[in-house]
Every structure is written in C-alpha cells, then in structure tokens.
Amino acid sequence: VSYASIDAAIAKEEAIKQKKFDKINAAAQADMAASNYAAAEKKYLEAVDLAESLNGNEQKLLTRTCLASCYLKQKKYKEAEKQYKEAYDSNIQLYRGNYPVLLDDAKGLSEVYKATDRVKEAEKILASAIEARKTRYSVAGVDDGDLFATFYQSMREALAKKNNAAVSKMFQYPLSVRWNGNFKRRVTTHTYRTSQEFLADYNTIFTPKITMLFAENPEKDLWCKDQGIMLGGGLAWLTNVQLVKVGGKPTYQIHAMTINDDIPKN
C-alpha cells in the first residue's frame, strides 16, 4: 500500500466526518433558534465528539462554546461552566486568546458566575479575557492586539483594492524583505529605503500568491511567536512590527517581512 493511497483514504474519512459535523452542527443551531434546547444539547454533544476527531481547532472551540451556551439556556450551570472553561483555557494555552470566541466564553462564564453568586469571579474573568485579547501578539513585540487587528484589516482591504500606494504606507523604511527559497534554499534579502523603491518592486513582493495569502487569512487566523506574526502555514511572516504615529494617531507599520518562497524571476 502506497503512502499516497493511505493519505487519500485518510482525507476521504476526514471529509465524511466533516460533512457529518456540518450537518449535525447546523441542525443544533436550528434547534437553538427554535428554543429546542434539549434537542440541541444532544446534537452539540455529538458535534463536540466529532470536532475532537477533526483537525480544525477553531471548530472545537466554537462547538464547546455553543454546547456551553445551550447548557446555560437550560440553567445547567455546572455543565455550562465546564464547557466554557475548557474552551477558554484551551484558547489561552494554545493560542494566547487569539480566537475572538474567547470573549464569548468569558461572557458565558460571567453569566454562570453571577447566577451562582460569584460576582467577583464574573468581573475577573471578563477583565482577564479583555487583557488576553489585547496582549495576544505581545510575544512578537506587538502590545496592542486590537490596534494591530485594525491595522491588519486595513492592509487586507488595501491589497484587495490593489491600492498599492496605501499598502506602501503600511511599511516602515528602510524595509527588509527576505525570501527563503523553497527547495534550493536560496536566501535573498532586499532592502527598500523609500516607498518609491518599494512601489517599483511591488509585484515582486506582493505576487498573486502572497496577495491571496492575506485575502485568505483574517486576523483571527493569525499565529505568532517571538520571531513574528505568521500568515497561513508560514508562507509569510511579519517579522518586525513597530508601533508608530501617523497623523498624530497610533498605528502599526511593518519594518521587516519574510517570505518562505523563491523570489520571483523578473
């Protein structure tokens, strides 16, 4: 048996599970909308089990949160607390609170705590969630996650509109762009001293592949470590993001970028 056939069989099984998950999840949402909470609970329990066997981390967090909300609607506070807490803790431990569903979990936990006479805990979990969201990129040197999220979304919009001039203003000069070749590992680094130099080489940096990478990766899907903020599976890294003021208002600019691909041939 070849590795290709094994991979194909695994992919087929994953696709079947995903289809089943989507169907059950949609049915559970319909039950919730119709206030059929007992029926929704059964479906969400099944969906949680399926989500655990699938690779999508976000759907695991979302499904646990939905199940917790279903319990909360039924005033099953102990069960709701367990599911909210597991989703919340997983988000913090694995993703530093990067997924915005963290706030939903915190709000749910807050309601549970209030309903069970734990007002101080309710206040504490909300404050902790807000702080975790704000500092979710701090390991990469970005201290205001919400401000960076606004900056990143503006960059995605400028790229989608092919507004090259607007994109150029989102970088700090001199700008270093490093290409790590895929196969032969030919490392190439270019330094752009001005926005004019950047714009002259714009299509070399923002190839269709890289532009699509930004389009397909909303802020909630970004990941980071000390070397920078990663898009997708690591094809591109924003490796030096600086807090600056533009027109008297704080924002971010990118001072260095790494692309794990060969530099395009002119």
Structure description:
The chain is an alpha+beta fold and 266 residues long. Helices cover 58% and strands 17% of the residues. Strands 2-1-6-5-4-3 form a 6-stranded mixed beta sheet. Helix 3 (57-73) packs antiparallel against helix 4, helix 4 runs antiparallel to helix 5 and helix 5 (101-115) runs antiparallel to helix 6. The longest helix is centred in the N-terminal third of the chain and has 31 residues, at 3-33. The model has no long low-confidence stretch (mean pLDDT 93).
Molecular shape: globular
Low-confidence stretches: none
What order do the helices and strands follow? Answer: HHHHHHHHEEHHHEEEE
- Average residue-wise pLDDT: 93
How many separate helices? Answer: 11
